[in-house]
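LOG
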Amino acid sequence: MKKVSKAPFKIFKKGVYILPSLFTTGNVFCGFYAFIAVLNEDFFLAAVAIVVAIIFDGLDGRVARMTKTTSEFGVQYDSLADVISFGMAPALLAYAWVLKPFGRLGWMAAFLFLLCGALRLARFNVTKPDTHGDHFIGLPIPAAAAVIASIVIAFEDLFETRLDPMIMVAVVCLLAFLMVSNIKYPAFKKFEFKKRVTFTRFLFVILFIYVLATIPRVALFILSFVYVLAGPGNLLFSLFRHPDSRTLDEPLSKHDK
């Protein structure tokens, strides 16, 4: 009789780090709650749940690195959580919010967003990224989800209307393309609270927190779009400055993420 390998069960014998896993579980919960809110047609609350999931997602990795509790289990759990909260949840939100009247075009656009988000996460995992790198390759899926959530929050709460469906289709498809592209986006992983910074940079951080606390809905909308445009903007700047630089179709190096 063939002996069954016990390798897949070794990770459970070693145990699971509870602190980062709790943050990841909070991410999953927010993604699931976004589904419930969409089914109840409470689109604003669904968008807020996605934003809270983004906060949990940002904390779990940073907490794991600070406490030196990173693990392969945590990486895989985080990716599965991201598919739920930043792939399926915003795709369902966009479809139910304005894309549903388009029928096949609407749900295919939403599916394209989900598919490209899953591909983005799979590529991120297999390339074995450097956790201390200063950039990502392709738009991170939480940033893409933030764009959709911020649009819903801004239009539902501030403008009390809904975005034009054709514009939303274009936005969803553009986000899908950027996620699977080779465009570099800043990672902000080298930001350390213990490191000394210039007084000007400190004032900029204070101003950023002030604006985010004063007008969070508008700030989230602006910040998410600025981040999305930062990748293509830096690419165009580098192409004009260095015409012989690498194109988007060239293969990634082993250091790219």
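LOG (cont.) second protein
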Amino acid sequence: MHLQRSDFRFFHPLRVRWAEVDMQHIVFNAHYLMYLDTAMGDYWRALAMPYQESMALLGGDMYVKKSTLEYHASARYDDMLHIGLRCARVGNSSMVFEGGIFRGDTLLVSGELLYVFADPVSQTSRPVPEALRQAFAAQTAGQALTHTAVGDWHTWGARIAPLRRAVFVEEQAISEQLVWDEADADAVHALVHNALGQVVASGRMLVHAPGVARIGRMASHRMLRGSGLGLQVLRALMAAARARGDTEVMLHAQCSAEGFYAREGFVPCGPVFVEAGIAHQEMVRTLA
């Protein structure tokens, strides 16, 4: 199989580590399979599907039936590699992924991974769910893998609540009483959901003062952070603020996320303060 970089839409970057080089001063052959498996984890992030939760929703799991590798050239210590993956074929219960490990435009290793979708208890095969087929096809075609929606709590609250609880209550140990309030009923809510309908990012917008919107309760699924979902929510809320005539947006950013908001034009206002046991920085942005 001779693959080219242009055959792939998805790539996972990986730098060769010292521990992966053998006595011949090249990457030990078995590590290339690990590289493909590592890229597969990032592939699921690109689909906006947290793997374990997605499999639970789909009522099955993916099991490797066969892995094959073909070696064309060797990687060496500190090489910057890019691992391409694509879903090449989907059968009744099987899925074939092709992979290419590149240094620059040079193909070092090509591989094929055959998976079977199966019942996780009996490990007997099941038909690949239609939603999963469509997600693979959308990724291959370069189509959108998520959908952003804006609405009210009555419409979306039940679907936003599990994500908000997971991020604020379970992960950040914030009291339930501080996570839920009556303001949800009057807020504008934005959310991103994946191909399975799972909400993977959300946030809300309130009226802070005449002409000033306040964004808060920004949450992204822990396994999908850094993939742009929070940015989709933030931009959707700012668009909603413009649409209702607001001229400014303010928010209380957790200090660990200050850079995220700064890249979208928010600037610090006032000193750092503690809210719900976490350091925050008030930030503001004028809406053009």
